[in-house]
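Please produce the structure of this protein holding S-adenosylmethionine.
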Amino acid sequence: METTLEFKNTVYHLERYPETKDNSLKAWSNAEILALNYLEDKKFSHYHIFNDRFGVWNCVLKDKPVKTVWTYASQKKAVQKNLKLNKIDIVDSSFIHPLDEYGTIDCALVKIPKSLELFELFLAKIHKASEENTEVVCCFMTKYFSTSYLKIAENYFSDIQQTKAWKKARLLILKNPKKELINEKKFINKISWKEDVLHQYYGVFSSKSVDIGTQFLLENIKITKDEVKVLDVASGNGIIARELLKLNENCEPTLVDDFNLAIASSKLNLPENKSTFICDNNLLTLKKNNFDLAVSNPPFHFEYENNIEVSLELFSQVKDCLKDNGHFVLVANKHLNYKVHLKKLFTEVTIVNSNNRFEIILCF
Ligand SMILES: C[S@@+](CC[C@H](N)C(=O)[O-])C[C@H]1O[C@@H](n2cnc3c(N)ncnc32)[C@H](O)[C@@H]1O
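Below is the modeled complex.
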């Protein structure tokens, strides 16, 4: 895997976190480098950076005041890992949550996320913190771009320029924040589910309706009165834990998700006094041998990358968190063939139901 980046006569060592066996992947893209090239002759006093997945911007902009708007626990860890590898001091206060106040923005650097909604949330928050001369530098690989991103940008900024492509990457430069916005949004979607309504922030999984895989899991899930300690792995807006609480009001769900807006959403959908919310990309900080039941609709893609490595790691950690008589129920796309992997971890693995796309797997 390529881990050495030479930029303007400085050599950086940049690794991916979590690690991957796919050696074709690296910790930066031409889009991020193009944005750094653009900044070369600019004189911004400070930067707010968005979606710096593995920390290349944090490393190269080390001599400038930088605020990193982080979205994933794994992203925060990746940035910290690469700062450390490059012997750059880590300043905890430079990380801010996307829903926090940003202060005043001089230059915002955005690697355009796959989610249009998350892009909109970023731009709306940037707009709110903008001054007359604020500049927003958005970068993307051309194969992932659509005019929908442009339309969102036009809602917030009057002056929009697109640069020429360089190594299949391009920039959108946004200037002149619009004085008055037609619609101030709250960045929360409402999702109807049976008689219920769930709330979730922009960018959180399945924004229009409950995912069909999750629906299939909910049709097949059971909980007994004795199953109290429940773990919802990759919990998204918290719908699975919420349904389990309806079935057993005494249960105490713990929800874990890598995405901080997913965790923020689940806090809108579950009682805070009964639930534990953890924004993390693994289960290593959880107590071992503690849970009666673990449930999941596990992740299998991250932005534009599909892989099951992350889920397989989570499965082995679930095993450690379960009590000896505890069990794990998950829904998965049939083609992922998780049963084979789960059999290496659990004594009994059964497909308890399936339809044309999904299967429900029960593991003891
Ligand atoms: C398929 S969605 C399921 C969400 C929710 N449980 C539902 O059914 O609607 C998978 C979730 O996994 C989260 N995720 C991705 N990688 C993760 C990781 N390493 N640890 C925990 N959560 C992760 C994503 O942010 C996303 O919310």
